[in-house]
């Protein structure tokens, strides 16, 4: 899909920049204060920009300029929607260059529609276990402990988004499905990080960071909110731990499964041009025409599936945390060492005094 672009040296350099540069990880996205959310969203948007370029532009001769302009967009803008619109403008302007400056509005919009809607993809973000399961068996399987956990939550009217009720649903939004992969299975993520039974203030990054103690802390808050019996509380914690051990590992990759739209039955989303929109706004509207696909048979044709494994950010954040710890230790040493010379002289002087006293006693 965009594998060849990921192998380019300039793409790898920008990936490293996104992972490690303060101008990205110290920025604040509007409405978000958690560092990892910014980090990952920038990465997801990068993958979305690569996907749209490969799908619509294809020709590599425009890519160097496209990449430089994308970097300028993510450096300048802080809002996710603004960055998405910036990508739409980049695609629009690059397509103009490819088709020729005299290309009509209708030709540009029909090209984007044909390549992105009619010949584009549905995506599904999975964790590693689900990804391997689907690859090997062509279907997703729910564990018994997950079913028991759901029954327990229903008993106490704890409403959690259940992606397994839509286990065959794919989405056209690549950035959304990248997020879903990092936090899959979404039922567990929603239980400990995104439901109305959690208090107003709590850590939202614990599932993403694979912080088991943090997840249990949040889960206990959910349990306390409904006055759960001790027996059910024990079951809830037990089910969660079993599922945690099964689904979580140290693999940082983003796992996606893609299905080409034109290989599936069903109506394509229609787009009607609105003359009061600028050309860039019209292109952005085509990209924003999200839709889902649901396979009622719950089983997939191998020929229709494309399996993608992309870089994730978490390992780079862990490395950065380790660097911070080393820096703190070094700074502490420097602070203690500001007066190191005078301290050493005092110690040496004290030793000479002690030795002198000992010698005087021995000689007397």
Quick synopsis:
The chain has helices at residues 3-6, 9-20, 22-25, 35-57, 63-76, 80-99, 105-118, 128-137, 144-155, 174-182, 186-193, 212-224, 230-247, 279-287, 314-337, 340-363; strands at residues 121-126, 169-171, 254-260, 292-294, 305-310.
Produce the secondary structure layout.
Elements: H1 3-6, H2 9-20, H3 22-25, H4 35-57, H5 63-76, H6 80-99, H7 105-118, E1 121-126, H8 128-137, H9 144-155, E2 169-171, H10 174-182, H11 186-193, H12 212-224, H13 230-247, E3 254-260, H14 279-287, E4 292-294, E5 305-310, H15 314-337, H16 340-363
Antiparallel strand pairs: 1-3, 2-4, 3-5
Number of domains: 3
Distance, first to last CA: 92 Å
Radius of gyration: 28 Å
**Class from helix and strand fractions:** mainly alpha
Tell me, what's the shape?
Answer: extended
Oligomer: single chain
Low-confidence runs: 31-36, 325-343
N-to-C order of helices and strands: HHHHHHHEHHEHHHHEHEEHH
For the largest sheet, list the strands in their spatial order: 1-3-5
Helix content: 55-70%
> What portion of the residues fall into strands of 2 or more residues?
5-15%
Can you tell me about this structure?
This protein is mainly alpha-helical and 364 residues long. It folds into three domains: 1-103, no CATH class; 121-275 and 290-312, no CATH class; 319-363. The protein is 60% helix and 7% strand. The protein has 16 helices and five strands. The protein has helices spanning 3-6, 9-20, 22-25, 35-57, 63-76, 80-99, 105-118, 128-137, 144-155, 174-182, 186-193, 212-224, 230-247, 279-287, 314-337, 340-363; strands spanning 121-126, 169-171, 254-260, 292-294, 305-310. It has a three-stranded antiparallel sheet with strand order 1-3-5. The chain has a two-stranded antiparallel sheet with strand order 2-4. Helix 4 packs across helix 10 (174-182) and helix 9 packs antiparallel against helix 13. It is extended. The chain starts with a helix and ends with a helix. The model is unreliable at 31-36 and 325-343 (pLDDT under 50).
């Amino acid at each position: 899909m965009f594998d060849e672009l990921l192998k380019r040296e300039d793409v790898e350099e920008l990936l490293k920049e996104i992972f490690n540069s303060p101008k990205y990880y110290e920025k604040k996205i509007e409405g978000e204060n958690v560092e990892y959310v910014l980090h990952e969203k920038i990465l997801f948007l990068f993958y979305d920009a690569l996907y749209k370029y490969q799908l619509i532009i294809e020709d590599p001769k425009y890519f160097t300029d496209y990449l430089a302009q994308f970097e300028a967009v993510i450096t300048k803008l802080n809002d996710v929607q603004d960055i998405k619109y910036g990508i739409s403008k980049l695609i629009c302007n690059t397509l103009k260059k490819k088709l020729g400056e005299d290309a009509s509005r209708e030709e540009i919009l029909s090209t984007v529609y044909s390549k992105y809607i009619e010949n584009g993809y549905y995506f599904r973000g999975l964790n590693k276990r689900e990804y391997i399961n689907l690859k090997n068996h062509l279907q997703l399987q729910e564990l018994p402990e997950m079913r028991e956990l759901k029954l327990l939550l229903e008993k106490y009217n704890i409403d959690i988004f259940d992606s397994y009720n839509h286990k065959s649903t794919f989405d056209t939004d690549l950035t959304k499905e990248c997020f879903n992969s990092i936090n899959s299975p979404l039922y567990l993520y929603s239980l400990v990080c995104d439901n109305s039974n959690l208090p107003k203030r709590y850590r939202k990054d614990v599932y993403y960071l694979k912080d088991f103690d943090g997840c249990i802390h949040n889960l206990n808050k959910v349990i306390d909110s409904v006055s759960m019996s001790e027996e059910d509380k024990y079951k809830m914690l037990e089910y969660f731990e079993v599922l945690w051990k099964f689904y979580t590992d140290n693999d940082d990759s983003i796992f996606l499964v893609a299905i080409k739209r034109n290989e599936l039955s069903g109506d394509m989303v229609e787009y009607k041009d609105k003359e009061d929109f600028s050309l860039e706004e019209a292109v952005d509207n085509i990209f924003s025409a999200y839709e889902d696909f649901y396979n009622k048979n719950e089983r997939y044709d191998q020929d229709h599936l494309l399996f993608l494994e992309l870089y994730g950010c978490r390992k780079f954040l862990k490395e950065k945390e380790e660097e911070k710890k080393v820096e703190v230790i070094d700074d502490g040493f420097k602070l203690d060492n500001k007066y190191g010379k005078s301290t050493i002289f005092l110690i040496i002087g004290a030793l000479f005094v002690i030795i002198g006293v000992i010698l005087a006693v021995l000689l007397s």
